[in-house]
Specification:
Chain lengths: 344, 344
DNA sequence: ATGAAAGCGCTAACAG
DNA sequence: CTGTTAGCGCTTTCAT
């Protein structure tokens, strides 16, 4: 009646696709009930040492791997933490993931992620997809989300952590630093150093709203000091060393009188710095350069890059800690540190 | 009898923790059977347009989000792809994830990941944890895994993709390029350019076995050409720009006669290059520098870095495509490209 | 200390 | 075209 009875061919196939061992099979093999196996495996409830050994022996022998899909369905939390991040090219997000993954792994949680490419609609779709896994928490970049995203998140009942931004209203938890304040601090530093004709080279501001907030803080502080932004060059698309170089080249073609340029981040700033090195523009006497992020590479260039160091790894770590400890709603300001460097 | 009956306070709590809407509730609200809702949602099987509208209206109104945990348990695959990667600091892995995530998202798969920090024991534990989610596939770096890891993987029945290496035996699928061949190609290039006193600056070779294979390929080719490796400086720990700089400094302190240095990757090589810039060592006339990976930044430095460009994003993309199409076991060699640059 | 049984929320036959 | 029903593999009372 069953194909398996009719030939060796199917036996072979059955070996290959052997369905995973189940808890019931382990129970059977150990000669105990299913609930006993479950108790032993989770070390919860009581059982004799003898039973424990029998069960573990069977687990070992059969190569049993518990099925967390079933486990999660039967019990409470999934111990899944979902990251919906804008990009993996921008080093910021791998750094955040790195900080979080250590903590998550130590606490038997798993990280799931997807990449929005800075698109709010994709974010919406991806959040929905993530929510289908009933994660313990979902981590997002910043505070700008579509109405529907916010609604889904609120309705989900899972923890929400908004990362890397402080300029806005948190849904639940928020961990990061103020980009607006960072922009302002950069402006004040440059002004203090005596620069007055300051330009800006940046990448797409509408999509990367945190870069937009830094720009706003910068412009605001420069304006307030009576030294408004001299000019700006916006490079469509993501940030990169190459677009920083190109952006500075274009900006200088228009404005030879600039004495300092603020870049939307260190990648861009390094591009600008390399442009200066290659074209004999002496830094900072002819032109000062200032970045954002405090990448390690900026400390090793012939002149250390002047920038703002941000606690990206710590952001991930703290966010994960708040989630695994189920901390009450709160906003954690990790601050940032201005690195004077030698380029400004 | 129940605390909830005694006061308004608990009612509020109940609102907050309102359990997620279930398919049964949607069916109820729409006045249809559960399987009908299921069919409509998955657009599978047949149903009238009228029914469809009624169901969708209820879904919308209740804010229903399907539970994939339950769905997966009831049906077949999880559509989860597990990445067990050594590091997130090394740009290689974010790049691979980036390539894969695009394809996975387009095909309604989710990426789960964890980080081994190049430790085979952690890898073993993390693979086990991943397997508990019954992923469609698990993606690993390279071919070096513990016996138990291999056993679990084989027994799991899920697809296994080994990434970024070709020098070894694949379990199922493998996508990448030969690190040994890359090391050899680098040596041949340097020799062809006339360099004979070649040194090496690298990071931990035992943990990063792919870097070890490049080193082996390099040494082998240099030895075969009668110009064996002059000296080497191994920096414990991961690769970084700073350790590249420091490594070169130390190496040169011992061997002033070197005419070229091969670095374990571009990060290290950039550190070396910056050291030369800062100390007036002219590149490549006094000292040639050669890296590995072909990072974008190396194309924008005052002198473009001589290196080998590797298809990291494509590795992730192809790996994901093989998985979502359930391709037969195979090894895909994506090759690499030697970039002549100006530093060697 | 242990087993039996009732689900968790969904999908997949199988009837109608 | 649609509803009913039997699980998926586990956890969790509840008895014993």
């Amino acid at each position: 009646m069953d194909g398996r009875l009719s030939g060796g061919e199917n036996v072979t196939l059955d070996f290959r696709h052997h369905p995973a061992v189940t808890l019931a099979e382990v129970a059977e093999a150990a000669g105990v009930g299913e609930s006993t196996v479950s108790r032993v495996l989770r070390d919860h409830g009581s059982f004799s040492k003898k039973t424990r050994d029998r069960v573990m022996e069977a687990v070992e022998r059969l190569g049993y791997v518990p099925n967390r899909i079933a486990g999660t369905l039967a019990s409470a939390g999934s111990r899944l933490v979902a990251f919906v991040i804008p990009s993996l090219s921008n080093i910021v997000f791998p750094d955040v993931l790195r900080g979080a993954s250590t903590v998550l792994e130590e606490n038997q949680h798993q990280a799931v992620f997807s990449v929005t490419d800075y698109d709010p609609e994709r974010e919406e779709a991806l959040v929905a997809a993530m929510l289908a896994w009933r994660p313990t928490a979902v981590m997002l970049a910043g505070f700008e989300h579509s109405e529907r995203t916010l609604k889904m998140l609120r309705a989900s009942g899972c923890r929400v952590v908004e990362l890397l931004d402080l300029d806005g209203t948190a849904l639940d938890l928020a961990v990061g630093y103020s980009n607006r304040a960072a922009g302002r601090a950069s402006a004040e530093f440059l002004l203090k150093r005596g620069y007055r004709r300051i330009g800006y080279v940046g990448h797409d501001l509408d999509r990367d709203t945190r870069a937009g907030k830094r720009f706003a803080g910068l412009s605001e502080a420069l304006g307030a000091a009576g030294a408004p932004l001299a000019d700006r060059e916006i490079y469509a698309g993501g940030s990169s060393v190459e677009s920083g170089r190109l952006g500075l080249e274009r900006l200088l073609a228009r404005r030879r009188d600039l004495d300092a340029v603020y870049f939307s981040n260190d990648d861009m700033a390094l591009g600008g710095y390399f442009h200066c090195l290659a074209h004999g523009i002496s830094v900072p006497s002819q032109l000062a350069i200032f970045g954002y992020n405090g990448l390690d590479i900026g400390r090793v260039t012939p002149q250390p890059l002047s920038t703002i160091r941000t606690p990206r790894v710590a952001t991930g770590r703290i966010a994960a800690e708040l989630v695994v400890t189920n901390a009450p709603p709160q906003v954690v300001d990790l601050g940032f540190e201005l690195v004077e460097g030698a380029t400004a």
